[in-house]
Amino acid sequence: MNPTIDELAFELEAAKAKEASANAARIGVEQRLIELLGAKEEGAETHRGDQYKVTITGVMNRRFDAEALAGVAVQLSPELMGHCVRYKPEPINEGIRYLRNNEPEAYAVLATALKVTPGKAQVRIERAAAQREAA
Question: Residue 32: inside a domain, yes or no?
Fold first, then answer.
């Protein structure tokens, strides 16, 4: 017999709860290891126990303020800017869908440089009103 939508949704809800609990436990243990061994501000450091090797990597996230960057970019040589700033083309999905639906000739030109691959389908569940009241 095939499972019902409610049975599968319940199973997914339970799996997500286990996943969240496991994630929280993992993050807690990682924090305890960092407290025990320390972490460099940036870069990796490896520590060895009797049975395990643990590598802790410090990370510094960097983002530019686009407006401020435009102001300072003229003060640095293009060569220096090229070593510090990467300009990466990023598709604007709304505009691409507009071209595909309304200007197919322009879309055909753009599509020659566009790589499209299917992503993972997203599944969202929520309990029906009657179920929420009973729970």
Answer: yes
Q: pLDDT digit string (tens) for 23-69? A: 999 999 999 999 999 999 999 999 999 999 999 999 999 999 989 99
User: Do 34 and 56 meet the contact criterion of CB atoms below 8 Å apart?
Assistant: yes
- Closest C-alpha among 119, 123, 122 to residue 5: 123
Angle at 112 between CA 95 and CA 105, to 5 degrees: 60
Alpha carbon distances (Å) from 96 to 39, 101, 112, 113: 43, 9, 13, 12
Q: How many domains does the chain have?
A: 1
Average pLDDT over all residues of the chain: 92
Is 116 within a domain?
A: no
Q: Residue 31 belongs to what domain range?
A: 1-61
Average pLDDT rounded to a whole number, residues 58-82: 92
pTM assigned to the model: 0.70
| Beta strand ranges found along the chain (DSSP E) | 43-48, 53-58
- Bin 43: left if φ > 0, else alpha if -120 < ψ < 50, else beta: left
Distance CA 113, CA 98 (A): 17
